[in-house]
Write a structure and sequence with these properties.
Helix content: 40-55%
Bound molecules: zinc ion
């Protein structure tokens, strides 16, 4: 990309450089949800149309964006900016769990929906946060695992199929 810009699009390189510099100067973390924002509190957290009793915990701002694009959720968020990974030196402090605990204790939040990844780190993080928030008297739920929409059993990996059977529900 750098070679392409230098050879064919120097004005584009200038614009990209300016945009990156501005982002570094202006973008910070929202005081409430910890996602990226240009203001102290982001537009999503300020919105009066969101349900403040629900707090969805995700690993990254990209995960928050995916949740928003799915248009299935009207509550608020907390972005961890990672997941617990002791071997990499990422502990509760690095993923801001002290701030999450304070955020969830605002007296409005009733339920925390844990939407961390279904990786070893994501599962460990969900377990840890579950214990933490349940101790604060908050209802804790985990997003479900299962087959993809439109998916066919014969094309699904055995781990996903096994989880789908374990987490079956009545209809
Ligand atoms: Zn926010």
């Amino acid at each position: 990309m750098a070679y392409h810009l230098l050879q064919r699009d120097k004005p584009g390189a200038q614009r990209l450089g300016d945009a990156l510099r501005l982002a570094l100067e202006r973008i910070r973390h929202c005081e409430k949800c910890n996602s990226y924002a240009e203001e102290a509190v982001c537009a999503l957290c300020r919105s009066s149309r969101r349900d403040g009793t629900l707090l969805c915990v995700v690993e990254t701002p990209a995960d928050l964006l995916m949740m928003e694009q799915a248009q299935c959720y009207q509550g608020l968020y907390f972005v961890l900016m990672g997941a617990l990974s002791p071997l990499d030196g990422v502990g509760p402090r690095e993923i801001h769990l002290d701030r999450l605990a304070r955020r969830a204790a605002d007296g409005v939040v009733r339920e925390a929906i844990l939407a961390t990844n279904f990786t070893v780190e994501g599962e460990a993080t969900a377990h840890y946060i579950g214990e933490l928030l349940r101790a604060q008297g908050i209802r804790v739920s985990r997003i479900a695992r299962g087959l993809p929409v439109g998916g066919e059993l014969e094309h699904v990996d055995s781990g996903t199929l096994a989880q789908a059977v374990l987490e079956r529900r009545n209809i």
